[in-house]
Every structure is written in structure tokens, then in C-alpha cells.
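Continuing the batch. This is chain 6 of the set; chains 1 through 5 are on the previous pages. Same settings as before, nothing changed between runs. Recording input and output for traceability.
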Amino acid sequence: MKKILFIVGSLRQGSFDQQFAQNAEKALEGKAEVSYLDWAQVPVFSQDLEADIPASVQAAREAVLAADAIWVFSPVYNFAIPGSVKNLLDWLSRALDLSDTTGASALNDKVTTVSILANGGHEPVAEAYRTLFPFIRTKFVDEITTTRVNDSAWADGKFIATDEVIANLEKQADAVLAAID
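Output for chain 6:
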């Protein structure tokens, strides 16, 4: 069975992005094995840390290498990719062999996609991911699901995906599975 690693872009417990990802997990039920990356301890990138790679970064790399595809669930922060998500992708895109800085990374040729949940700024962030993922040498599946947070979620903490969003996630899931060699 194909293995898809979810990266939830909000580290808050029970975040709307976490709930969004759970809807996508349902779309993959019986089709792929889903796991979630624990990346809360990944430090801010610094070349000074690369020689003795932090354990949290090594664990993230290993999880990425074990997966057939990576699916990011991204919030929008100030009409941009959240800095924490970009930092994680920076670490994951670095060469595994420091003697060849142009060599393969954990993300090299990995199937990737993104879904975006925000109440504005979807298009600039989608464009940023469309530029970033191919640049860091992934096989980007440009079947992006975007949606906004339902108004009631701000009061009760529960993200509710519409039927249209669920259909889009199912379509995105099928596109990701088709892209896996």
C-alpha cells in the first residue's frame, strides 16, 4: 500500500489544518497508509547545525524518505507560506551528503502536493508552493484544494468541510496516488 506523509502546517493541537488533514485522510482510506510528521522540534535552519544534524531533522528526513508522497496542509500567514513550514522544507531540501551540496535531498523526486486553509491569501500561497516544490526538485501535483475556515469554527474550534471541499480532497488524493510511480 502506498505511504503518504502528511505535514500539518499549524503546530497548534487540534488546529483547523489538522482537522482539514483528517478529511483528506478519509479520502485516502483503503487506498494509502497515512502518517503525520512530528516536526515541532525542528530548529531554525542554520548551516552551523548541518554537520551534526539535529535528531528532529534526521527523524523528519527518515519519515520523508519512507513515504511515497508528501501532502502539506498549509495555513496562510500574512499572505505567505508560514515561516515554520518554509523552515522545515528548507531542512528537508538540503543535500543528504554534505560533500555534494547539489546532491539528492530527502525530498528529491518525491511526489508532493498542498492543500490550503485560510480566510484570505490562498492564491499567493498556492503560487508560492507551485514555485517552491519544483525548485526543490519534487514532483509537484498541482491539484490544490483551497478553502476557508467556516465562521462557526472561530467559536467552537470545529472546522467543517463542505461537500465541495471533500470532493476536491478526493480528487486531489486520486491525483497524488496516480503520480506515485
